[in-house]
Amino acid sequence: EIVLTQSPGTLSLSPGERATLSCRASQSVSSTYLAWYQQKPGQAPRLLIYGASSRAIGIPDRFSGSGSGTDFTLTISRLEPEDFAVYYCQQYGTSPLTFGGGTKVEIK
Amino acid sequence: EVQLLESGGGLVQPGGSLRLSCAVSGVSFTSYAMSWVRQAPGKGLEWVSVISGSGSTTDYADSVKGRFTISRDNSKNTLYLQMNSLRAEDTAVYYCAKSAGLRLLYQFDYWGQGILVTVSS
């Protein structure tokens, strides 16, 4: 099983700041089958990024993904008030499909 | 508009059974694999099971293998999860999620609103 470790656990930032979230895999993620989701309290997750760097439909370009192999990054270039949420990475290259433990982006 | 609507959750005693349903609309249901993902209270996301578009291929997380069965009725555009021998640690919000493509394991581009399953005596 591929274990995904997200860091930091919590990121305290102000609106307008840049957020950098990390996702590290215990083994290489095949074909960059790595996705990022955003989840707000009481809501289902929302797909942000797939294939490590492709934005999903309707996702603003302040969200970007990068990385390959075992190290991946989600960057939010300038935080908007609606971006404060929990973010999860997910690998879907190998069964079982796994998620990281999440990074909470909170208002400082 | 793609919509996924779960039903069938509730309170069940340890060792009991429950069947979740997920009605899907706005998409060619048979073209996509479908999964169940759960989230225990205050915890992260855990993938549970996946089924191919035809229903011929399934896969399960080790934590539910042998206890849960995923199935689908393509004539009704509905996904199911039969949960037997339920344990307290199965308590979670269960989401149905649509795979974004034909591949069995894929990113999830649409999710249901989630349904709570509570296993307690």
Characterise this structure:
The complex is a heterodimer of chains A (108) and B (121). Chain A is 0% helix and 49% strand. The mean pLDDT of chain A is 96. Chain A is globular. Chain A contains no helices and eleven strands. By secondary structure, chain A is mainly β. With 121 residues, chain B is mostly beta strands. Helix content of chain B is 0%, strand content 50%. Chain B contains no helices and eleven strands. In chain B, the strands form two sheets. In chain B, strands 2, 4, 5, 6, 9, 10 and 11 form a seven-stranded mixed beta sheet that branches. In chain B, a hairpin with a 4-residue loop joins strand 7 (68-73) and strand 8. The A-B interface holds A 33, 35, 37, 39, 44-47, 50-51, 56-57, 88, 90, 92-102 and B 35, 44-47, 50, 59, 61-62, 95, 100, 105-109, 111-114.
Kindly list the characteristics that best describe this protein.
heterodimer, A: 108 residues, mainly beta, 7-stranded mixed beta sheet, 4-stranded antiparallel beta sheet, 0% helix, B: 121 residues, globular
Structural class given helices, strands, pairing of chain A?
Answer: mainly beta
Distance between the termini of chain A: 35 Å
Tell me the series of helices and strands of chain B, N- to C-terminal. Answer: EEEEEEEEEEE
Helix/strand-derived category of chain B reads: mainly beta
Helix content, binned percent of chain B: under 10%
Oligomer: heterodimer
- Give the terminus-to-terminus CA distance of chain B: 40 Å
Rg value of chain B: 13 Å
Overall 3D geometry of chain A?
globular
Biggest interface and residues each: A-B, 25 and 20 residues
Uncertain spans of chain A: none
* pLDDT averaged over residues of chain B: 96
Q: How many H/I helical runs of chain A?
A: 0
Largest sheet of chain A: 7 strands, mixed
The residue-averaged pLDDT of chain A reads: 96
As a percent range, the share of strand residues of chain A is over 45%
N-to-C SSE string of chain A, H for helix and E for strand: EEEEEEEEEEE
Q: For the CA atoms, what is the radius of gyration of chain A? A: 13 Å
